[in-house]
Amino acid sequence: MSEADDERATIPELDEGDATEANAATNTNRVHITRRDTMAFAAETPAGHRVLIDGPPSLGGPVGSDGQGEAMRPMELFLASLASCMSVDVVMILQKQKQTITGYDVHVEGRRADAVPAVYESIHLRFELAGEIAENKLQRACKLSVEKYCSVASMLLPSVKVTWEASLLG
After folding, report:
1. What gap in Å lies between CA 42 and CA 50, rounded to an integer?
2. pLDDT digit string (tens) for 142-151?
3. Could you tell me the CA-to-CA distances from 59 to 21, 40, 62, 71, 76 in Å, in that order?
4. What is the 3-state secondary structure (H, E, C) of the chain?
5. Residue 106 near residue 86 (C-beta atoms within 8 A)
6. Which of 21, 71, 127, 147 falls 20 to 30 Å from 161 in CA-CA distance?
7. What CA–CA distances, in Å, run from 162 to 16, 79, 122?
8. C-alpha closest to that of 55 among 34, 43, 72, 78
9. Which residues contact 15 (CB under 8 A, 6 or more apart)?
10. pLDDT at residue 126 above 50?
């Protein structure tokens, strides 16, 4: 077993979707989308977790209605999915290494193609952590996440350039 496998061996498998028994049994995630108004939608999992998704104001309806850019847009939500997927890995790896995290932030920037569809060409994540964390363990946890464990990152590579940096604050 490699050092990387050993680090992850005691981390339970993660299901990025809802944790219902059916999903665990079939390894399938489900989300239901409902149109709220104009370009605004609500996404809900079978467990009842909800998130609002909205289009930009240029696509919306009358002022005061949904579709006015008042919730995350789909591509912003995708950046959040990547950052949160990697964050689960990074935190779990660091916890298993007995590192103490007292602060955690990730800033994500995605550059999209100037075409239709406007897919991401590159995404950069900046991890900022505080606590009693060894620098080499932080760097290794981020590397393992993007290169091996994060399902969202794996779906992007190699067509999207995913880069990252990590630093300790304080």
Report:
1. 7
2. 999 999 999 9
3. 39, 10, 10, 13, 16
4. CCHHHHHHCCCCCCCCCCCCHHHHHHCCCCCEEEEEECCEEEEECCCCCEEEEECCHHHCCCCCCCCCCCCECHHHHHHHHHHHHHHHHHHHHHHHCCCEEEEEEEEEEEEECCCCCCCEEEEEEEEEEEEECCHHHHHHHHHHHHHHHCHHHHHHCCCCEEEEEEEEEC
5. yes
6. 71
7. 19, 11, 6
8. 72
9. 23, 24, 27, 29
10. yes
Mean pLDDT for the stretch of residues 31-59: 90
- Closest C-alpha to 108, from 170, 163, 51: 163
Structure tokens at 78: 């995708």
Distances (CA, A) of 42 to 38, 48, 96: 12, 11, 36
Per the listing, tokens 């240029």 go with: 58
**The two three-digit tokens of residue 15, written as one number:** 């299901």
Joined tokens for residue 114 = 């100037």
The whole-angstrom separation of Cα 90 and Cα 119 is: 26
Output the pTM of the full model. Answer: 0.81
Distances (CA, A) of 138 to 25, 65, 90, 108, 153: 33, 44, 8, 17, 18
Rg (CA), the chain: 18
Three-point CA angle 113, 51, 42, nearest 5°? 90
